[in-house]
Amino acid sequence: MEFEYPIEGGDFTRAGMASSQVKKVLKQLNIAPAIIKRIAVAMYEAEVNVVAHAFKGTMLVNIMPDKVFIKFIDEGPGIHDIDLAMQEGFSTATESVRQMGFGAGMGLPNIKKNVDELQISSVVNKGTTVELTTYIS
Amino acid sequence: MTEKVFHHALKILEDVCYGCTHCIRVCPTDALRVRYGKAYLLPERCIDCGKCMKACPVNAIIIDQDDFNDIFKYKIRIALVSSILIGQFPRHYSSRKIYSGILEQGFTHVYEAEHGAGILAEEINQFIENNKSVRPVISSFCPAIVRLIQVRFPSLVENIMLLKAPLDLAALSFKNELLERGYSEDEIGIFYVTPCAAKIAAIKSPVGEENSPINGVINMDLIYNKVYRDLKKETRSTCIVPEKEQLKAEEMGWSLTGGEARNINGRCLSIDGINNAIDFLEGIENGTITNFDFIEVRACDQSCAGGILTSSNRFLTTERLEERIIKYENDKIEGKIFNNKTIDNHIDFVKGKISIDKIEPRSILKLDDDMESAMKKMGRIQRILSFLPGIDCGACGTPSCKTLAEDIVQGRAKTSDCIFIQTSLNVAADKEIRAEKIWGKDRFRKLT
Q: Is there a contact between A23 and B285 if contact means CB atoms under 8 Å apart?
């Protein structure tokens, strides 16, 4: 079962809308609440990352009987050093973004903590792809 | 797991209801439908918030209550009243006078349900301290919210604090006092005077606790009317002034918005109104709202002052109760408070019974227990939705096109229930049958 949601870069007002929709679907599919919670946290963090860093992006969700696979593809600056970005506390966020409560440098580590598999690939000045896999059975 | 039958205090009067669909649109859990021209309730979905009752233009939705005369089955008849009741009356009627008025109705004792909130505040703080992995802790005070979380936010069920409400603690301590004074169990009748439907449902089928110590429930508007009439007439020349046992300041405000949060350590917030509650709980569930220690959530606007069974304006009620707190605090400064609280003699007993069992989620959102079947059903819902008009007119008897699609897939409705689909149906006979099933025969006689 596949879903696709567009994400607008810079639109913090609507950040989280796509995640909220997916969460509703997961609830309807009777996926265990604890798993939904983890997916919701990871998915929201990833969505906010696109909003905060990219020009625009897409969230692709594929729900299979044994796992939930979510892929974020964005057009944006890309990540220079993925290993550095994975470190807790590392952030490239500007002061204005931090004032909105984002950019604490916990995004990627927090995603990693809440999913079973995390794949990041990035081309500088082109964009980033983040893939989250959560097993449900 | 066996399915439990849920007690609902809300009842629909079939003779009065004319199927206007106002109620089905306001229900936060999509628990109402119109069939045969009458509204009906899907019991597993209803959380007893009372929104439908407020929306009904003809008062066809009522709250079932115990027969008032049941109180006389007991030798000791206690009116356990929410302090919200005081706020129902104009300010010139003192709380003593109001409580005297309640005794006049045949009770032997009046006891405020918020006694015990003081002990509870300590226990909540302890609970938060002991459960550091649970954040935010969500209050269990409002039974409509507990049920809302069970049915719509199953992943937040484990955030609900597992502690009883003040009214249970008040009832337990007062009953224990009477038992110690030598009365037997069956001589004691505790009747809760409730400002809302959810409390009734919580007492009749409690979530997370065995049996309630409360013997019956009386609607606040009934007591208000009885007492107010007597006060107006001033027929009684001798007023029995009850022995006054005062609530502490924090207890007086417990049922108002902020009443709990104010007394809890850490970062706390109070939310009132069911739609605000849903919004906020969504935020917690999505992980967008974080770093709170304690959340007080109440289903009614202005908390219990806005309860469905209250008679006065909710803001005036709040004002009166806030004045009462200020007066208490002034009296305290002037040394006028000599408080000997019954519950203070039963602290260990009450604390021993303060916990409730784990609360189980019971999601109404899941389309099927089996995930693969749920996925199939979701696919069908999407297909059905693509040809429904999407204007949520309610003429099919469900709140929205989306609920109709879900009902069709769950076998509760048919595609031809949609009046827009009906216009394209060829078989006239089926059309009439379907229309009658939703609206009843009479509605169509009215048109011809």
A: yes
Q: Which amino acid is at B271?
A: I
> How many whole angstroms separate alpha carbon B135 and alpha carbon B290?
8
Last residue of a domain, one of B291, B318, B352: B352
B residues 338..377 contacting A (CB < 8 A) = 361, 363, 365-372, 374-375
The total domain count for chain B is 3
The residue segments making up the domain with residue B244 are 68-122+154-259+305-352
pLDDT above 60: residue B447 = no
Chain-chain contact of A23 with B368 (C-beta, under 8 angstroms): no
The answer to whether B70 contacts chain A (CB < 8 Å) is no
- Contact partners, residue B108, CB within 8 Å, separation at least 6: B75, B76, B77, B78
Residue pairs between chains A and B whose CB atoms are closer than 8 Å = 59
pLDDT tens profile A18-68: 898 999 999 999 999 889 989 998 999 899 889 988 999 999 999 998 999
B27 shares its domain with B80? no
What are the structure tokens assigned to B432, written together? 């009439």
Are B318 and B429 in a shared domain? no
Residue B344, classed as helix, strand or coil, is: helix
Chain A partners within 8 Å of B372 (Cβ): 65
Which of A22, A28, A134 is the best residue to mutate to test the B interface, defined by the most B CB atoms within 10 Å of its own CB? Answer: A28
The residue from B352, B384, B412 where one domain ends is: B352
Residue A71 gets which letter from DSSP? Answer: E
- Closest-approach residue (CA) in chain A for B373: A29
- The answer on B433 and B339 residing in a single domain is no
From B288's Cα to the closest Cα of chain A, the distance in A is 8
Total number of domains in chain A: 1
How far is it, in rounded angstroms, from Cα B99 to Cα B109? Answer: 9
Which band of pLDDT confidence, cut at 50, 70 and 90, is reported for residue B235? low
Domain identity same for B216 and B325: yes
Strand positions, DSSP E, B173-320? 188-194, 216-219, 268-272, 294-298
The per-residue pLDDT for B2 is: 38
| Domain CATH code at residue A92 | 3.30.565.10
Q: Is residue B295 one of the residues assigned to a domain?
A: no
Local confidence band at B25 (pLDDT 50, 70, 90 cut-offs): very high
CA distances from B52 to A96, B49, B99, B272 (A): 44, 8, 31, 17
Report the C-alpha gap between A29 and B374 in whole angstroms.
Answer: 5
Amino acid found at B367: L
Nearest-neighbour CA in chain B from A124: distance (Å): 29
Instruction: Using an 8 Å CB-CB cutoff, list chain A residues near B375.
Output: 1, 29, 63, 65
Name every chain B residue with its beta carbon within 8 A of the beta carbon of A63: 375
Residue B144 in domain: no
Co-location of B77 and B176 in the same domain: yes
Distances (CA, A) of B29 to A36, B95, B382: 20, 38, 20
The number of angstroms, rounded, from the C-alpha of A73 to the middle of its chain's C-alpha atoms is: 10
